[in-house]
Amino acid sequence: MVTGPVPLPVDRTDPLRRSDDPPAGVDVDGGRLLSRLDEMAAISATPGPAVTRVAWSPEWRAAAEVLHDWGPRVGARCWMDPVGNVIAEYPGSDSRLPPLVTGSHLDTVPGGGHLDGTYGVVAAWEVLASLAAAGRVLRHPVRAVAFVNEEGVVAPPYTGSRAVAGLLESDELDQQPSAAGSRSLRALLESAGCQPAALDRARWTQPVAAFVELHVEQGPVLDQGGVSIGVVAAVTGQQRGRVRIRGQANHAGTTPISMRHDALVAAAEVVLAVRAVSGPGGCDVSTVGRLDVGPNVANVVPGEVDMTFDLRSTDPRRLSAALSDLVRRAEQIGAARRVEVTVDPLPPTAPVPADPLVREAVRRAATSHGLPTLSLASGAGHDCAIVAGLGPVGMIFVPSTGGISHHCSESTPPRDLLGGARVLLSTLVDLDRTLP
Ligand code: HGY
Ligand code: MN
Ligand code: MN
Q: What is the C-alpha separation between 318 and 284, in angstroms, rounded?
């Protein structure tokens, strides 16, 4: 189990750094990083400061085109893969070596912040631009990636990273994700200019040397601790899914209470049951984020309710115990309220520990910039957990002001945004030297 935040002593003597060697010998361009973050923040279906850039939407496509334009300017080959991931690759001096990879996701939740995902993508392209500007070629190729549909707003999450990891089955493309209207996922991808028929080409068939994702913490730990850099110890496991409740719509005035099969009354108890499965012995956190009522009319007893559930834990046993507990509670509620309650879990994403080699490189990099670090678990899910089968993974966090995220007031001080990008660049340079 990951312990709570443990402030690490700031050791300013970086064992890998000669005294005359500035960290990494190459630096990010802070002005370019911040202006590109502003450029991306403006590509949204909603007015600022909220950012709405749902996967495969016109706004997502526009942002992908901007990334594609930034790619060649840094001497990197840049392309969009069949499902919509944007990838840029900067050559290394030893073509036999697998790439060092960094990146995050370009899509957002509706009305979200301008940093969740986007910060790690812009910083990844900044790494390539900084290496190119310094004429610096590492031994490993350096690959930047902007994954698509990490958030899972219009279809089950992590589509892009699952495609890359070979975990996206083609039959999923023919399903009609609830939020995508009547279109299949395949049709949605085609409408966004992707080629779902070539899904197999999205898979990375070679391992990666390491994958390092830079991301805002989205929680309060670093901000409250006054610490600039989070060294992520593990990414939480997730169990998402839907609950369908089917009762009987009826007249709100003439139907006696004793004769009702009220789907919304049952749903209210299911929402509380979702809350009840987190806590001691259960999962870490649990949420119902979406609830649709039918027919959703004031004078009709609700006949049907669809809702989502989202359970999280860094302990896979507690995650599955919480799901079993929820199913049991839902069945009891269905029987008592005389409605049909169906719990449809999505495949779980397992908790993933960060690789010790990557964690140590992040610590050394932060120390070389004189930045204190804190070790913590990620309560948010991330693409790096999905691609962990391709090679060693790790994450770098920077503070989220007030711990706010998935909200238009998401923010991080520019000083910390620059610090995170510098530590990312130095981490990759360190791994280029230290990976076996
Ligand atoms: O939901 C999550 O944890 C991530 O922000 N997609
Ligand atoms: Mn998110
Ligand atoms: Mn994210």
A: 8
